């Protein structure tokens, strides 16, 4: 079954994103604590594809040894899973992407998979700031032309249709 890998700092709104995409209130709940996620969570969306939660975020601040360990785990994880068709990086549109967000974007790019950047909590941004914020995120992440940035809100449902269309096209569905 094809998979889409989801990455995002804890508390960024990852489970809210999944829940909104599939219109559930509570299905996608991660029990992970910040910096402690070491297990893989699979969310069975339907019989057509799965979301996979990419674990362990916050590595800009961890030791070299820890990061190397995490890196090996990730390599193994991605190397074994040729069913991963695309990745989505969830970021909070209110803030400048952190060093971790940037590292994660680069990391996902290195697997040569399409990266969708989901800029969530869009409802918290004033109308007049939207364009500027979106542009800033693209610049800070140094996003590649072919990668999509999708303004999103789990609160209002903004961006849901675009996110679905983009995902389905990566899944060739
Ligand atoms: P996770 O740890 O990444 O899974 O984050 P959650 O999905 O649990 O969300 C963290 C917090 O942000 C919760 O209080 C959510 O209600 C809130 N949140 C998530 N997405 C949005 C959004 O699009 N808009 C607003 N206003 N709040 C959001």
TrEMBL record:
<feature type="domain" description="EngB-type G">
    <location>
        <begin position="1"/>
        <end position="173"/>
    </location>
</feature>
<dbReference type="InterPro" id="IPR027417">
    <property type="entry name" value="P-loop_NTPase"/>
</dbReference>
<comment type="similarity">
    <text>Belongs to the TRAFAC class TrmE-Era-EngA-EngB-Septin-like GTPase superfamily. EngB GTPase family.</text>
</comment>
<dbReference type="InterPro" id="IPR030393">
    <property type="entry name" value="G_ENGB_dom"/>
</dbReference>
<dbReference type="InterPro" id="IPR019987">
    <property type="entry name" value="GTP-bd_ribosome_bio_YsxC"/>
</dbReference>
<keyword id="KW-0547">Nucleotide-binding</keyword>
<keyword id="KW-0342">GTP-binding</keyword>
<keyword id="KW-0717">Septation</keyword>
<protein>
    <recommendedName>
        <fullName>Probable GTP-binding protein EngB</fullName>
    </recommendedName>
</protein>
<keyword id="KW-0460">Magnesium</keyword>
<keyword id="KW-0479">Metal-binding</keyword>
<dbReference type="GO" id="GO:0005525">
    <property type="term" value="F:GTP binding"/>
</dbReference>
<keyword id="KW-0132">Cell division</keyword>
<dbReference type="GO" id="GO:0000917">
    <property type="term" value="P:division septum assembly"/>
</dbReference>
<dbReference type="GO" id="GO:0046872">
    <property type="term" value="F:metal ion binding"/>
</dbReference>
<keyword id="KW-0131">Cell cycle</keyword>
<dbReference type="InterPro" id="IPR005225">
    <property type="entry name" value="Small_GTP-bd"/>
</dbReference>
<dbReference type="GO" id="GO:0005829">
    <property type="term" value="C:cytosol"/>
</dbReference>
<dbReference type="InterPro" id="IPR006073">
    <property type="entry name" value="GTP-bd"/>
</dbReference>
<comment type="function">
    <text>Necessary for normal cell division and for the maintenance of normal septation.</text>
</comment>
<dbReference type="Pfam" id="PF01926">
    <property type="entry name" value="MMR_HSR1"/>
</dbReference>
